[in-house]
Amino acid sequence: MLEGLPPNGASHGLRLVCDQKTARAIADLVVETFDPAETAATAFEEPDEKSWAVEVYFGDPPDEAQIRALIEAAAGAEAAAAAQFFEISQKDWVGASLEGLRPVRAGRFLVHGSHDRGRVGASDIGIEIEAALAFGTGHHGTTLGCLLTLAEICKQRRPQNVLDVGTGTGVLAIAAARLLRQPIACGDIDPVAVETAGVNARFNGVGDLVRPVVAVGVRHPALAPDRYDLIFANILAKPLRLLAPKIAAVAAPGAELVLSGLLARDVPGVLSAYRAQGFSLAKRRDIDGWATLLLRSGGAAPRPDWRLPDDEDDED
Fold first, then answer.
1. pLDDT range class, residue 292, cuts 50, 70, 90
2. Cα dihedral sign, 273-276-278-282
3. Does 158 or 42 have the greater pLDDT score?
4. What burial letters (b/e) apply to 31-66, b meaning 16+ CB within 10 Å?
5. Is residue 90 within 8 Å of 54, Cβ to Cβ?
6. Which of 131, 130, 166, 125 is nearest to 147 (CA)?
7. What 3-state DSSP class applies to 125?
8. How far apart are alpha carbons 16 and 39 in whole angstroms?
9. pLDDT in tens, 46-85
10. Sequence-ordered list of residues with C-beta below 8 angstroms from that of 62, at least 6 positions apart, any chain
11. What is the pLDDT of residues 140-176, one digit of tens each?
């Protein structure tokens, strides 16, 4: 799962306060340029609601001259000179993250940290996720887009067999398990993410329903035998394109796919790859510069309305 959190073992960081356009341009350039397992970037609005910040986290000491050159290419010499580099520790990162993370709402879902348990309402489906070594707290536009799409789908029908490819901290799998009250298949290429997702699933009371496995795409005995009518893949554009045939092979007739981790310019290539497998675009959602796509096998018509026993017409 793509998320704006540091890579495993992040040791160095960069911070720059600027305007929204500059922050997003720099974050996008970092995502494009560096391996996401080693470097991650996030852009967000500052508490004063007037300025934005971009933060970049590195698994190894960065080449400051190279990074400043990249920033200058994206946003000019003034921004490059203003960037501040610093050393961090995992303890420092977790503490700082918990101070800044606010609950994220997506329909009935409320993703929160332990410091915000009191904000979970009686009708909310609370998902408690702390800043950790794996990607995925729900605060990134990609994760939020997937959660909103899941909430919309479950107002229309009850998915029978759900798969989460690249589960990260397990947010989507946990959300689906808590809403549908059924097993959710999920995997991730990163063993740390798999361990973290398993811990989060147990902590959120769905450890018997969410049992993540280490897998490249869908290549695992626990994932491959089934056909899924709802599949999430919140990763990156290139692996999404490469995985299109494999994902199509485990999709049931009329299946819906929720794909994310995409910048706007990534969408045409990803759509082309999945159209070649018989899927068509049903809906697109853009949040903070990131696109989430809902695809349907064969462009199937919407299914009959179906609601969970206690579902309500909550606003997304």
1. very high
2. positive
3. 158
4. beebebebbbbbbbeeeeeeebbbbbbbbeebeeee
5. no
6. 125
7. strand
8. 16
9. 767 778 888 888 878 899 999 999 899 888 999 999 999 9
10. 12, 14, 39, 85
11. 678 889 999 999 999 999 999 999 999 888 999 999 9
pLDDT in tens, 236-247: 888 899 999 999
Tokens standing for residue 313 = 């017409």
pTM, entire model: 0.68
Q: Could you give the 3-state DSSP secondary structure of residue 43?
A: strand
Helix (H) or strand (E) holding 184: strand 184-188
- For the sheet containing 279-287, what is the strand order? 213-214, 184-188, 162-165, 228-234, 251-263, 290-297, 279-287
Both tokens assigned to 189: 């290429």
Measured distance CA(174)–CA(252) in Å, rounded: 22
